[in-house]
Amino acid sequence: MDMIKNIIPILFIIGLVWGQTYEDVVILKNGSEIHGIIIEQKPNDYIKIQSGKNTFVYRFDEIEIMKKQIIGDNTDISEKNHSIGFGFLTNKTYNLLQYTYDIKLNDNFSIYGLLGIGNLYGLGIAWQKNYNENGLMIGWSGGIDVGDDPFGSFSVSYQWRIGESQNFFSLGTSNFLFPIISLDRRFGN
After folding, report:
1. I need a surface site. Which of 22, 75, 132, 167 has the fewest CB within 10 A?
2. In terms of residue numbers, what domain contains 64?
């Protein structure tokens, strides 16, 4: 029963992280961009877009393009220092599900704290060929596992960024015995 109590908050965090919110973006022929929510649209005539407390009306002949964009979407994730991952072991330790917070030391090294299912909590250090990009990752972590026993974990994996998203797929090994197959999402600054 205690395990279920621990899983529910973690699943809630995953929903918040992977759930994404969109906004409408209207780019005018004069180069202006308006971000907000389209609240009214009459095809081939006009649109109304709510941006903050303001409402703007544009004729279709003024508009170059209309699109949806993820709010806070930033394809430069080099400074993203939070991660939530799951899989058949995760890329930094042998957890089935984990949250990590990185402190980036330089372009290759970071130290991190972790919470997870498997290894309950701990600290670690990781080397990445390219921080938050494709490449080799080597990590060591230690802490306390679910049975209140100390653990130590050494992992070697290769991570692939999925398109221009903040999501990664990793394959590798933990303690040279167990396979790593995981997905994780980087977020925050």
Report:
1. 75
2. 22-70
